[in-house]
Amino acid sequence: MPVMRIPYTDPLPAPRILPPSASTVRGTIAALTNFLVTPARTSVPTQQTPSPPHPSAAESNHATSALASSRPRTLLLTGAGISVASGLADYRGSSGTYTLNKTYRPIYFSEFVGSHASRQRYWARSFLGWENLRRAKPNTSHRAVAALGQAGAIQSVITQNVDSFHKILNDPASLPTLELHGYLRATVCLTCRKEYDRQAFQERLCELNPAWHTFLQECLRSGALDTENPIERRERGLKTNPDGDVDLPGVDYATFRYPACPSCLGKDARVDVDQDGAVVPTTKAGVLKPAVVMFGESIPPEVKTRAEEFVDAADKMLIVGSSLATYSAWRLAKKATDQGKPVGILNMGGVRGEEGFFEGVPRDNDGSLAFRSQEASEFILPEVVERVQKMWGTSSDKVADKTLDDAKASASS
Ligand SMILES: [Zn+2]
Fold first, then answer.
1. How far is the centre of ligand 1, averaged over its atoms, from the C-alpha of 293 (Å)?
2. CA distances to 106, 148, 231, 265 from 177, in Å
3. For this structure, is 181 an active site residue?
């Protein structure tokens, strides 16, 4: 399995809108609705889900279920763009990390594993950035995704995001959700692989770093972490990255302390800590890492396999809020295209290799074969939900606002 690589940051070419009517909100809503409700012509049968027979008039008793099974099975892939409206920065949008900070360089897995100083820097920035993520809530687009799942318009979700918003909202029974790059809601021990709740870890960091805790409280008082607007937050002296950490030049990270894995501590003689349980530079075990896939780290084989199964089982693939600059996401869209499956893209700005996904698609198709739009998902998806519910006579329960705290129960799942 290839390791996570830094996505390339060169500008991507402007997209060709498809169909041309998708250059407006109304046109995009119509095209995306057609994409979701029209059965795929080139359905690839799989073992798990054989192609259903067409219902006849005599089978009226079973009409509803047969109708449901004739609907296309759409896989949704989401990226950072869908969480911008929750106040979380993306990479390449107008306020994105790569756009505003040309020198931004996230930590590599090998640095984190090999260097105590790198871990101090990482956890100090994460300590300050955590509160913002913890208080962030899923937005209109995440709720619309959950509702599309309830309506039967999408069958599975793969997300590149580590904010857990889809995991919080989506019904796991009807809308399985795969977090391709892991999640920030937990830490994981590099030695024993046990996972721990990130908020409990935050409380340990407060205990071990009283001066940093005071600084964090000052940031919270000044409002630097209050606003959900990345631009306002920057104006108040704090920059956050999509990884959930904070940019803070001129700070001595060497003073930051972080705890060892409680399970390994005392059981593994290689765990070196001070009198308070904070890791010291000589430790050879018990190091906790965020449960995200870092750059230079491999995606777990079971996650990679499951993602491919999601693609195989789908008739279509819809991409929302991702430029597919990360190879692990791009290759899934490529796989779907190679299988002859229609691809739709809703993303502001260009998408890596997107012309290749639309080869041979008539420009005047109504969206059912493919569509491409740059409209903001929060203005599109809720209306699409309503249209699909009207067409299919389904309705969904109102999905309430939830925060990351609600994800605690699923942290170990
Ligand atoms: Zn451990």
1. 18
2. 26, 13, 31, 33
3. yes
Distance of CA 245 to the CA centre of its chain: 16
The candidate with the shortest Cα–Cα distance to 290, out of 413, 168, 122, is 122
Count of CB atoms within 10 A of residue 28's CB?
Answer: 27
Look up tokens 């929750």; give the residue: 86
Helix or strand or coil: residue 367?
A: coil
Distance 262 CA to ligand 1 centre (A): 7
Q: Tell me, in angstroms, the distance from the centre of ligand 1 to residue 115's CA.
A: 18
For the packed helices 327-338 and 301-313, what is the interaxial angle rounded to 10 degrees?
A: 30
Please report, in tens digits, the pLDDT of each residue of the chain (413 residues total): 456 776 666 677 889 999 999 999 999 999 999 999 999 875 444 444 444 444 444 444 444 445 555 799 999 999 999 998 887 766 555 555 555 555 566 789 999 999 999 999 999 989 988 988 888 899 999 999 999 999 999 999 999 999 999 999 999 999 999 999 999 999 999 999 999 999 999 999 999 999 899 888 887 887 766 654 556 656 666 655 555 556 565 578 899 999 999 999 989 999 999 999 999 999 999 999 999 999 999 999 999 999 999 999 999 999 999 999 999 999 999 999 999 999 999 999 999 999 999 999 998 899 999 999 999 999 999 999 999 999 998 765 555 556 666 655 554 44
Residue 351: both structure tokens together: 């998408």
256 within 8 A of 127, measured Cβ to Cβ: yes
Quick check: 187 and 289 in contact, CB under 8 A? Answer: yes
Other Cβ atoms closer than 10 A to 355: 12
Q: How far is the first Cα of the chain from the last one, in angstroms, to the nearest whole number?
A: 23
Q: List the domain boundaries for the chain.
A: 104-137+185-292
Could you say which of 62, 116, 181, 213 is catalytic? 181
Q: CA Rg, the chain, in Å?
A: 23
d(CA 190, CA 195): 10
284 C-alpha to ligand 1 centroid (Å):
11
3-state secondary structure of 398: coil
93 within 8 A of 81, measured Cβ to Cβ: yes
Q: Residue 266, Cβ neighbours under 10 Å: how many?
A: 11
Annotated binding-site residues for Zn(2+) read 189, 192, 261, 264
Give the DSSP letter string of 333-348. HHHHHHTT--EEEE-S
Tokens of 202: 């935050």
